[in-house]
Amino acid sequence: MSDTGAPREDARPLLVYEYVGGDPFFVALVEHFYEGVERDAVMRPMYPVDLTGSKARLAGFLIQYWGGPQTYSEQRGHPRLRMRHNPFVIGAAEAAAWYHHMEAALGAMNADDVVRPVFLEYFARAAEAMINVAP
Ligand code: HEM
């Protein structure tokens, strides 16, 4: 066993999913996210009245994306997120609102300085990629 701090050759990198503590982190993150969505006059009407399924789908997707169980795809198939968002008109305002609620949700989770920027960079990029109307 080396004590030099160098990576061990038999060690695999820790998954983000593991680093944050697994399913409970993503379930709680999504709860916070939808608390924001519920109070947002622009976002709320886009979602179903009952948000139970929406929460499960978003949490399941994020769990899968960050290295956890692939349950989302077992239940929903390939994510094809852009295609699945086609029914909704997503411009810069909607993408900014989505990102804002996710940033607030991360704040509520007290994500540490290691993982917060990793998530924020991803969420910014993903929200931008979902825009499907020209300005
Ligand atoms: C940019 C602004 C966005 C808006 C306005 C938006 C809005 C929506 C709406 C209205 C739904 C349907 C709700 C439901 O599932 O019942 C949905 C589904 C979903 N969204 Fe978004 N979304 C946005 C960005 C994103 C991003 C960036 C991600 C991923 C990082 C994401 C992940 C998902 C997932 C996984 C689903 C469920 C897909 C399925 O399996 O049917 N969304 N979104």
UniProtKB/TrEMBL annotation:
GO terms for molecular function: heme binding; metal ion binding; oxygen binding; oxygen carrier activity. Keywords: Heme, Iron, Metal-binding, Transport. Its cofactor is heme. Belongs to the truncated hemoglobin family. Group II subfamily. This is Unannotated protein. It comes from freshwater metagenome.
